[in-house]
């Protein structure tokens, strides 16, 4: 039995794929005011891109802790992993608060139930060492613009599965961040806010750009009232939700496209023009034949696409620097290739009913073929000086 002098507060961050959850975590790390933060990142895909993004951030300090849980559907086994990870963090005596980034397809009431009622594999009660403090839901204003069609003053009831998830996330929260307002006109913003407010009249409501919010609005707010919130959903036993039902219901799946050769920039750019609409979310890194030194980061959600240069491949560094990186980056040896170093294309795709074989095949046709001529003057990804 562990006796805790203080229980550790937990903020759970929910929101559909690409809504801005990792962006919020990075923002909170930047302005955390001397708190040691434990983070659990529950990513849907087999490789945890969010974990890498957070660890590589300059705001992630040595005092912080992070635990990635991949394939994050919060099925029964993942729920146990979450509970065990929370318990380990809370009892480590090394952190002051915990952030949980839910994978985009998890219903927040399921996560809340895990925290409120969870027991570790060794039957320790989670609530003896930590407590659910705040449920934050981030709503991607740009995405719901495309999904919530104009109705007669009420939101459209005919939601497809992903909409239902978004609605669940909106309905179950203490704080709602209405994000990506920079992508909306004033009229669109007002219309959507009305819809969201109809679904969630009680939560604290904030409009945000890039998830920028004052720390005290989302951390240690004491806004979650466990009994009331769980009872409101009429869950006689909240743990009954912790099965695979929602995974099949929403038919959302993921795969990783990984190659050890670069894209031909023009061909890849043409492929982007015919983006398969069933891909909800894509994120990862890309290597271009025309710019062999640069890492390009891709982040797409809905119709919004970001492709930005984000530093240089470690393989481009001096030999002594590379050696040093091997001691700093624990996973570098695992991904290092004798010929190409860390250069790779690694893209995670998440969506509903995606045609994986077709997408993989189409992307393969975008790869650079050895000895083919290449025109780097017309590289569409070239930075304009
Ligand atoms: N224009 C705009 N882009 C934003 C805003 N907030 C986040 N983004 C971008 O949206 C993309 C997705 O943001 P993330 O923070 O990775 O989203 P996420 O919810 O963690 O995504 P998943 O982990 O895949 O569910 C990134 O390219 C962000 O830079 C915003 O307010 N406005």
Automatic annotation (TrEMBL):
Record-annotated CobW C-terminal domain positions: 252-367
Alphabetized CDD domains for the sequence: CobW-like
Record keywords: Chaperone, Hydrolase, Nucleotide-binding
GO molecular function: hydrolase activity; nucleotide binding
Keyword Magnesium: no
Record SMART domains: CobW_C
Domain of life: Bacteria
InterPro entries: CobW-likC_sf, CobW-like_C, CobW/HypB/UreG_nucleotide-bd, P-loop_NTPase, Zn_Chap_cDPG_Synth
Catalytic activity: GTP + H2O = GDP + phosphate + H(+)
Family affiliation: Belongs to the SIMIBI class G3E GTPase family. ZNG1 subfamily.
Protein name, as recorded: Cobalamin synthesis protein
Species of the source: Liquorilactobacillus capillatus DSM 19910
